[in-house]
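Researcher: Please predict.
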Amino acid sequence: MIKAVLFDLNETLFDRTGSLRLFLADQFKRHEAIAHVGVDDFVDMFLTLDARGTMPKAEVYPSLLEHLGQVDDVLAETMVQEYFDGFPHFAKMLPDGEELLLYLRQKQLHTGIISNGMANQQMRNIYALKLDLLVDGILVSETEGLRKPDPEIFWRAASRLSLKPEDCLFVGDNPLADILGAHGAGMSTIWVPNGAVWPDGAEPNPGLEVASLGKVHKMLVKIGV
């Protein structure tokens, strides 16, 4: 019986790509040195180099400026700092995220977040979205000294809720870190791709797949969670 629903953060509850587009459009307007490039090209190139948040920003911005024909180490450092200082101000939730969390609270199910990433940055995004008020537990890889798909971080999340892994359902977008990681730790899973692609050669999806958090909500209602 499912007693808790745990979530990834980026591209699962947090609309990271949509929020990035808003931040980057604002950042673009503040730098005349890149004004010769269209804002759409600037944003799209950043997203390509960023690779869904897997690349360090201290590498992304120099590469971005080089692609734009503007090699400038000082500007790159400035833009990196602007990212860390300003990005959380543009944070927004994916559609139906808040409604789903409130539904789970109404049903008296435990909820939590397990996120890979830098603790300060991820917590600032969580606070900006007020997710700390909507879930029962938050684990960030840098703080825990563990990263998904290590099963230990999933076991730790369940333990902090006084539950067993088999009592938990994990929802995420990353096939390897989220879905196969949680499955390997003994949890049920729902994959919400949000633009992610299941990698060739990986084990097949062991759980359910839906297109959006709204669909997760409907599925949980259907199966009596």
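Model: The first strand starts at residue 4 and ends at 7.
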